[in-house]
Amino acid sequence: MNTKSFMKRSTASLSVMALVATMGIAAPAFAQEAPQAAENEDSGAIVVTARKREEDLLKTPVTLSVLTSQELEKRAVVSVADLAANTPGFSINNNASGRADRSFQQIILRGFTPSGVLSTTTSMFIDGVAVASPSMLNSVGTPERVEVLKGPQSAYFGRNTFAGAINIVNKTPGDEWSGAVTAMVGTRKNYRLRAEIEGPIVGDMLTFRLTGDRWAKDGSWKNAYDGGTLGDQQSTSGSLLIVAKPTDRLKIKAFGFYAEDKDGVAANTRLNAQDVTTAANYLDSTGTLILKGQSNCTLTGDVDGLKGGATISLPYFCGVTPGLVNPVSSNTLKDSFITNYLASPRGRILSPSQGTQDYGLFRKSYHLHTTLDYELSDALSVSLLAGYNNEHWSQFSDLDGYDTTALPNPFGGPGSRSYFDFPFLVEREQLDHSFEGRVNYEFGPLSGVVGASLLDAKVRSDLGGGNGALGISSFPTASGFDRAKTFGAFFGTTFEATDALSLSIEGRYQIDTLYAYVGPAGLTLTDSTYLPAGTYAADSLLTKRTYKNFLPRAIVNYQINPDLMVYASAAKGVNPGSFSTGIINQSATVQQAAKAAGITLSVDPEKVTNFEMGVKGRALDGKATFTFAGYYAKWRDQINQILVIVANPTPLNPNNQTFVSGNANSGSVDLYGIEGDVSLRVNDLIKLAASGAINLSDIKRFSGRAISQLTGVFDFSGKEQPLASKYSATAMVEFGGDIRGVEDGTWFARTDWNYKSGVWSNQANVVRTPDRHVVNFRAGIGKGNTSLELFVTNVFNNKNYTSIADNFTFTPTFGRTAYNSALLVGLPELRTAGIQAKVKF
């Protein structure tokens, strides 16, 4: 049997279902294909492109979940955070940068938690073309489906697919005019207006699809500082897809979008370990209480974070994080100090007109790609892809994160406020382009693909702020470009040994060349700890490294019967190395402290070896579908971010601390788990689906000086990965059918339950967030091309935190920044109700 051919459904035996049940995970599930079991009316198949060719999801020997356009709509998925909430084993970390917003968002699959703010272990693609960041999901107007591939995907998708890949697949426009207009309004000023139209330009030879989308909401949390809201978000996007089919054998697609995000202050807050008062040391109870401390334990830390050093007792948090006792607040006053600071171009990579004009995030994204598919013969076809991304954003935040107007600023003067405050600007620009060419072939029992690809990406940033003289003595500092060029030659060959047994060998030879450039201000080094002392010209090459790796994957799959397939695979993946160039701008004392802590200027690639086994199929005459997988992964040479806090006293501030972070290959982790999906179309009225994942981790080796300083833990063996849920699940019940007596009348009502277990704040596993259960409800009626829906999200108003990170309590003299003294937590969207109308034409 050719595994690329779709086979008609037939009844699987009940013994198969019994076998699945004995795996102990019948309630959890993995792929979300159930409600679209009839996506292809003839075969009941959902088509995926996990191996660079179209295959039936249930006959593809790769672990992946799929959300089709119908499910994306019914689950109201408009962002990567929504996608993660609806996909077990998938988490989003959006507060690694000291705030919980959409600027730095990290995808975490199966517990492969990136080590630093700019690190990634999973990449996103549109139609197989790389895109710049996860935020671009909501810029693709009503995609046909979203594929979440888990496990190393390096053989086909290349760079930064160490833990997996996410591929957004566009809808192909038809040759008849059609379209839709969708309008939604809800509580807290939620609204969405989306329009889409498609049709012929020149018959079926040239067609197009045009979309426009505007979505916005007020945040769920009141800002105690000024009564405004925290967590406001707004996104505007437009996309155009043009498809040309000059001949039956040639298809050309051109796709592009423009997106603009404009968000307010993030919905996050700090849980402070100790009281903050107006006393001289900001701690004694003799002063007025500003923030109530919430510590529930005392940790025995180490003064230097080095084993054998002097111990210190530090109040902190243990177990499950406590609830909020302090008002959620953030300084958001836009006075002349802030206005002048944001209007200044000094030290910035973006012009003031491109940057944010207030507290919050302002981002613009552009994406273009073209694909060409040409059938040379029935056995050979050629595909060419080219893509371009341009994304830049500017984010301005109140880094201290509370109302500090009662605390005097000891460093006041011209250009600074009279009270303590710590406004902070971060900006980033990313440019990349990619090319890929491949040949697909099929010769008898042999089929597969061979090709080559190139990705060239550049990124630079600036940051700065504080409680000093903004725009007078305090300015942002722009970094130089970091550049990564990745060339890969790849292949995949499947051999149909018998009608039931297939063997696949895949691989990629990859060359990663990383470059770091001097910033626009140039650089003078007086210390040779990391690089030779001397003067380095602006924009000159600072350092360069090249890494070469071969990344294989082998798969064996066996089609037991037309409705049941089992598979096993072994794969290797590589995440490219990186640089710690930020440390060379520091003083000799700080550089030497960083080196003593293990920070290296360049780090080698991290590697993973992954083993999987899975089963996929249908049962009960095609009414039930199921997919299950188990995996074991060995993550070696793990790149970890190391934070070093060095005393750097000044005449004005004897408690001044310098924070410096860098990377090192300082970790080793084993990850293993099971993932599964069960779905059932009970009858024409009832549909059921459930998905779940158990993602376990076992740290073998890790070093983190700041964590050891706080906790006194130096042996992390046996601990679990932070920021990733061990248990996650979804469940859905949907009722629906025709409305009796109404021509073309339909109705539905569904409830979705999403569950994520709590996540640790760090590798010492001292404190974690509570488990999170979210129930969403949606119901609607339709007649012909018109539909009306009512929805309620977070029905039970779950307020548990969405993210967590070790952080600091900021006071005017920075007396509590020598060690972690607070937790930064992300606040969830609270109950939202609304109504949505859609008209198709």
Can you give a write-up of this model?
Helices cover 6% and strands 50% of the residues. By secondary structure, it is mostly beta strands. The chain has a single domain, classed as Maltoporin, Chain A, CATH 2.40.170. The chain has a 22-stranded antiparallel beta barrel. It has a five-stranded mixed sheet with strand order 3-8-9-6-7. Strands 17-46-45 form a three-stranded antiparallel sheet, with no helix packed on it. Strand 43 (772-783) and strand 44 form a beta hairpin. The two termini are 42 Å apart. Mean pLDDT is 88; it is low at 1-43. Residues 57-165 form the TonB-dependent receptor plug domain. It is a multi-pass membrane protein. Keywords: Cell outer membrane, Ion transport, Iron, Iron transport, Membrane, Receptor, Signal, TonB box, Transmembrane, Transmembrane beta strand, Transport. Belongs to the TonB-dependent receptor family.
- Shape type: globular
**Strand coverage percent:** over 45%
Q: Work out the helicity level.
A: under 10%
How far apart are the first and last residues' alpha carbons, in Å?
42 Å
Number of strands: 47
CATH architecture: Beta Barrel
Query: Helix/strand/pairing class, anyone?
Result: mainly beta
CATH homologous superfamily grouping: TonB-dependent receptor, beta-barrel domain
The CATH topology assignment is: Maltoporin, Chain A
Largest sheet data: 22 strands, antiparallel, barrel
- Counted up, domains total 1
What's the CATH C level?
A: Mainly Beta
> Any low-confidence stretches, pLDDT <50, length ≥5?
1-43
Rg from alpha-carbon coordinates: 27 Å
Average pLDDT number: 88
Alpha plus pi helix count: 7
